[in-house]
Request: fold
Amino acid sequence: MKRAVIVGAGIAGLATALRLGRDGWHTLVVERASARRSSGYLVNLLGSGYDAAERLALLPVLSDRALGVFTTVLVRADGRPKFTVPSAIAEAALGARSMSVFRGDLEAALYEAVGDRTEFRFGTTVSSVDQDADRVRVVLSDGTTEEADLLVGADGVHSATRTAVFGPDLRVDLPYIVAAVPLGDLAAVLPESSATTFIGPGRTAAILNLGPQRSSAFFTYRCEDPRSELRRGPVDALGAAFQDLAAGVPEALRHLEKDPTSAYFDRVSQVVMPRWSTGRIVLLGDAAWCVTVFAGHGAALALAGADQLGAALQRHDHDIPAALADWEAGLRPEAVKRQALARRGMYQYAPPSRFHVWMNDITIRAITLPGVRGLLRRSIERQNR
Ligand SMILES: Cc1cc2nc3c(=O)[nH]c(=O)nc-3n(C[C@H](O)[C@H](O)[C@H](O)COP(=O)(O)OP(=O)(O)OC[C@H]3O[C@@H](n4cnc5c(N)ncnc54)[C@H](O)[C@@H]3O)c2cc1C
Reply:
């Protein structure tokens, strides 16, 4: 039986464990955190990500947890509505083969699907790695050494596997912070089944209210020194950047104060590498190609990458380096395209000026016009091909 060590129990690592486990591999997942990490804002599964979810047989479970359709209410800083984008618009634009779920629900669906076919070691990471033509040897922080046919570094945008094997400086840090805060019940504050969204110069705050325990806040903002923002921590940094806003933001910040560890809070970075593998070591997901939150496609690409990796390994049977090269050739064009779209997406989430905010508003309003809706759907379909 072939053996794989997978670093990271995020979306990419779990999806890889699922796919390889089903293909008959023995898989060991090592996760640095002491327990599962199930938080996060919504993730969109469309295009190749939706196809992968289908092939991995995740759709029945995910459909039960899908966020469904909701109205987007664009608001001013004081909470007064600017205009509303009806749920039918997003539904029509995204098409039938798409789904939005909370990241935590996707993580849970993957974890449950993996079941006991994988060995998990939490609170564990990789201390050193070396390989020859036949094996890769991985020394773990728990003092054990694993020999495997394949090492998959799925340890996210700050991947230690990437730094250890491919060297530093492959991450392009962008001057933005992103945060997601799970919320309790917001029914008294905001309309149910809505995303109340403020987009102003350099920042976005969106509060998704889908009922009790199905609500979450998303924040992103531009800042010249993200490292010092990270040092301040989410409570101070988000408090300073968003305290002037109304419409659910004060409540979200109060939630955050009560439980700061529940928040996802990070700088925004892309990862740009000339190759995602060397010999029997491969990077997958954000570790290899992080596209950023602005692409809205990180989880979808992680699923697609894992599923397509399994398919390539099957095609090439014993020749792992050839399988990895074949897999990368198939996937790289999409990752490159998503990274380029993300760089443009920054203007939507953190418009540089009031003029850009105004232009965004006009674009979003135009989307609500019946003729433009069809154009939008065709454009999204083209992007997902
Ligand atoms: C808790 C959490 C919440 C998130 N929320 C959002 C969100 O709201 N919006 C958004 O756009 N993106 C979010 N992300 C990122 C998003 O999940 C990814 O962009 C996307 O799903 C690709 O997944 P990934 O598995 O490559 O990376 P990730 O989902 O980041 O998973 C990487 C995993 O590797 C683990 N890890 C890191 N270093 C090591 C190490 N040295 N050894 C072992 N394990 C290690 C991490 O703890 C993590 O579990 C979140 C990530 C996490 C971990």
